[in-house]
Design goal:
heterodimer; A: about 220 residues; mainly alpha; about 75% helix; globular; B: about 280 residues; alpha+beta; Heat Shock Protein 90; 2 domains; five-stranded mixed β-sheet; elongated; disordered N terminus; disordered C terminus
Chain lengths: ~220, ~280
């Protein structure tokens, strides 16, 4: 916590977003235990809210780290559409009393696609800075690994979590394992504090019209 | 071990979950590994490229220094071998015994010494002109190039011509001299190596850049050959061209026209107009 508070002093907005995300994840864990013990019927509301907040924070983080203006503009409509979709799934389809597998699945796919796009940009860029020495890269791979690992778990949860006790145990084991991995990777991300930037200018110097040798 | 204890009808679902999770996890790890290894390779390649560039810079610097030394040696040799003996001979004619000679002999000796001193003056003037052509200094690049081409045409072997489309504003002295030396070196190379029948120089201005292009119908070189020769060759000519281009902050490109008939060398130079002070001095 001290380490995180120390890192909070950073002026980098993307890191602040991740700090808020970590705090929210921790709070969510405690709330899950509380709701599970005292209000199990409201547990799915907590999960649905978590999906929306997680996606929102990731979009904000992506907005800060991406250099592409088109992507920055595109993030807002994607976020709004997802919000509408999650709300529809939560209020109309699940009626607030089932696991939000569809919204979680869509969230995972969107975040994975965004992560892959970020990595593709890193490959295409001619930056001499080592990619794994940047905060952005570690945070992106954290989300990529975490959401790839829990993708099948979340999309199957809606049908299985209330019916199969073995699945509930599997859910806890897989979810906890990837949560631990997520925290380790985010800690590694916090240790880095550099962000890449690159530009390339291409020049066409064909001057045939200007310097024709015909007199 | 409740994790593995399940009913038969859910075992298939469980396999999907476990293998799906493992598969996705492996895919994510593979993706990240590919990115990291690819980037490491790119960085390694960039480092090698940078090293090569540094080596090239070093070579250009060395070539530039060598060229200066050769130029000094040439001037030293010209002065020592030509001007030295001439002046020594003049001194012989004007020795102490001259006053004891007959007036006719004295006059003859003075006349001979005068002739030799005139030759020496001409020799020193030639050396000076080879360092800085007077036409270039007084009348500009166009006149200097036309002067050079007139001399080439005099041989009757090659037809050389120049057309300056926009030469209203002269470049500064340093730029003109550097461009003249580059063009001179290119023309010399064409004469020596390409067996061309004609050479044509064109000049134009666009925006803040001056463009010079030499066309010839001989056997020319293309950009990759230029870079290879520049890197591997022990000769100084191309290296000097490149170092002068770098000083001018310009660029040079070697191409062939679409019909594969004429080779062309294009030089792009940012314009630095002649300063007012220099005009007054001229």
């Amino acid at each position: 916590m001290f380490f995180l508070l120390f890192k909070l002093r950073t002026k980098e907005k993307s890191l602040r977003v991740i700090f808020v995300y970590i705090i929210y994840c921790s709070a969510n864990e405690f709330l899950t235990i509380y709701f599970h013990a005292y209000h199990p019927e409201k547990l799915f509301i907590l999960f649905s809210v978590f999906t929306i907040v997680e996606f929102s924070l990731f979009c904000l983080f992506y907005f800060y780290i991406t250099l592409n203006k088109k992507i920055k503009i595109l993030i807002l409509p994607v976020w709004v559409l997802f919000l509408l979709f999650a709300a529809l799934d939560f209020f109309v389809v699940n009626k607030m009393n089932d696991f939000d597998s569809v919204a979680s699945g869509v969230e995972s796919i969107l975040i994975i696609l965004m992560c892959i796009y970020y990595l593709v940009v890193q490959i295409k860029g001619s930056n001499n800075l080592l990619v794994y020495s940047t905060t952005g890269f570690w945070i992106i791979i954290t989300f990529l690994i975490y959401l790839c690992g829990t993708f099948f778990l979340y999309i199957m949860a809606e049908n299985m979590i209330n019916k199969d006790r073995a699945f509930r145990v599997q859910y806890i084991v897989i979810n906890s394992a990837f949560n631990i991995l997520k925290n380790i990777l985010l800690s590694a991300a916090m240790l880095m504090n550099t962000s890449p930037g690159s530009s390339q200018i291409l020049k066409n110097d064909d001057r045939d019209d200007l310097l024709s040798f015909k007199l | 071990m409740f994790f593995l204890q399940q009913s038969d009808h859910t075992i298939g679902v469980s396999y999907v979950l476990i293998f799906g999770t493992i598969g996705m996890f492996v895919m994510a790890i593979t993706l990240v590994s590919v990115v990291v290894f690819h980037q490491r390779r790119v960085i390694k390649f960039n480092t090698q490229l940078q090293k090569l560039e540094e080596e090239k810079q070093q070579m250009l610097l060395k070539a530039s220094i060598n060229f200066q030394e050769e130029e000094r040696q040439r001037i030293a040799a010209d002065l020592h071998d030509d001007a030295g003996p001439l002046l020594a001979t003049a001194r012989l004619y004007l020795n102490e015994n001259l006053i004891h000679q007959e007036p006719a002999v004295q006059l003859q000796s003075i006349f001979s010494a005068k002739q030799i001193i005139d030759d020496s003056i001409q020799l020193i003037r030639n050396i000076s002109h080879s360092l800085m052509p007077p036409t270039l200094k007084n009348f500009g690049l166009e006149s200097a190039m036309k002067d050079l081409f007139d001399k080439i045409n005099g041989s009757g072997v090659i037809n050389a011509s120049a057309r300056f489309h926009d030469n209203r504003e002269r470049l500064n002295d340093e730029q003109e001299l550097l461009i003249f030396r580059i063009l001179q070196e290119l023309v010399t190379n064409i004469i020596k190596h390409s067996y061309a029948g004609f050479i044509h120089l064109t000049q134009n201005v666009q925006g803040n850049f001056s463009y010079f292009r030499i066309h010839h119908d001989g056997k020319g070189i293309l950009q990759p050959e230029f870079e290879q020769l520049n890197y591997n060759s022990t000769g100084l000519g191309l290296k000097n061209i490149e170092s002068r281009i770098k000083v001018l902050k310009g660029s040079i490109s070697f191409n062939i026209d679409s019909t594969h008939t004429y080779y062309k060398v294009t030089i792009e130079v940012p314009r630095e107009p002649v300063n007012k002070k220099a005009i007054h001095l001229i």
